[in-house]
Specification:
Elements (H helix, E strand, L loop, with lengths): L11 H17 L4 H4 L3 H12 L5 H15 L4 E6 L2 E4 L25 E11 L5 E10 L8 H4 L12 H14 L5 E6 L6 H6 L5 E6 L23 E7 L8 E15 L11 E12 L8 E6 L6 H12 L2 H10 L14 H26 L13 H14 L15 H11 L13 H25 L2
Parallel strand pairs: 1-5, 5-6
Antiparallel strand pairs: 1-3, 2-3, 3-4, 6-10, 7-8, 8-9, 9-10
Helix pairs in contact: 1-10, 4-10, 9-10, 10-12, 11-12, 12-13
Amino acid sequence: MQKRGFTSLPDTRLVNRGNKNLDLLFRNSIHSIRQLSRNEAEAKGFYRFLSNEKVSEEAIISNLSSNCRAACQGKFVVCIQDTTEINLSKHRNRIKKDSFIGTTNVKGDQGLGFMLHPSLVLDAHQGIPYGYADIKVWNRPMELRTKNEREINKLPITEKESYKWIEVSNNTKSALSDSVAGMVIIQDREGDIYEQFAVVPDLKTDLLIRARTNRTLTDKTKLFDCLSDQAAMGTYQIVVEARGKRSKRIANIEIRYREIEICKTARTSKDVSSTKKLHLIEAKEVGYSGSHAICWRLLTTIAVTELSIARMCIEWYSWRWTVEEVFKILKKEGYNIEASELEYASSIRKQSLMIMEVVIKLFLMRLAYAEPELSISADTCFNEEEQEFMEHQIIGLEGRTEKQKNPYSTKDLKRYAWVLARLGGWKGYESKRTPGITTLWIGLKYFKAAKEGWDTHRDVSTR
């Protein structure tokens, strides 16, 4: 996989500065420009890059999309969409109230910030992250009227905020159609919009969306009930991890599927077909009556004609957690962009996009380690000097037993993901869970500090 970064900006100097800033964000794992810069000149260069009008959001997104397109040439991919809110309300007395910021909820006197809605692209077979086909960035007005005041039910779909699902799907198609073998666009319940099923799919593009509405089908049955009399076509088990008051358990899941036909309602756009044939997949937990029982009802344009296809669609939908991890690292469990010291939301929006690109490298490291048969070059994330430094780190991090040795060869990204995981607190035993994104992110912070000490020692030793 090729190195990632800026390749196209109005000025070569901006390309070089942008790539240097991406490198600083990756190496330091913090949002604060003052803290990640080694001197005043470096900090000023970062500030100027973010405030430069030639470096627009559109230009950054275009570079991210270009990186993604180059990485997934000829592949079959899944494109996962979701929305996150960047809330800057704690800085409302300092941040400039311009056209790049607005309220983040209907009440308007609490939330202050903007929204991000990416299309994260993964390899459909191995889950390798290729980047972002598109990212929509927007903000609501400072004075946001209620849905009743806006008469939202009378607005065309193109004027509703929910149009983001269709818009980003169309932009994803435009970005990737000429590059990939095919794509499946995956969305949660908010993407369950009739117009999307009617206009987005084509010969290369399918949709896989969790059902939100208990529609009446063309045969007058209800969507959520139409599989109730059907015998299970297959079963599987998953481990449900403990979380909050929820205990760990083994969940037994039954799979059912069938072709259905949905129809538009009086509120649907007039210029779309009146009905649409889809396939419904139900993955439902049995033998458990708790409030967290699993029940996924997935609508898809994929022809689900056998159990293996249904199982594949369920697996793909379960990959939605990857985009949630992007948001987690962007926000409080990682870079904490909502604590930014920047005064202009336009700069925070640009920096958020750059951090999202950096997170792809963390995904690559985590995936490389979790999938032993996958071969990813260390050069995708670390230069020669950094690899040399980590070879010295390995000596101190390895334990006495073979189980605590780094088992990977040089030039393999897994070898250096092991180093970051150990620096991030992972114990090094293969019997334990593989290191996660947050562990690798913490390891990067320690890596940066240790590398600076190593550089200083080398400089002093050679004088």
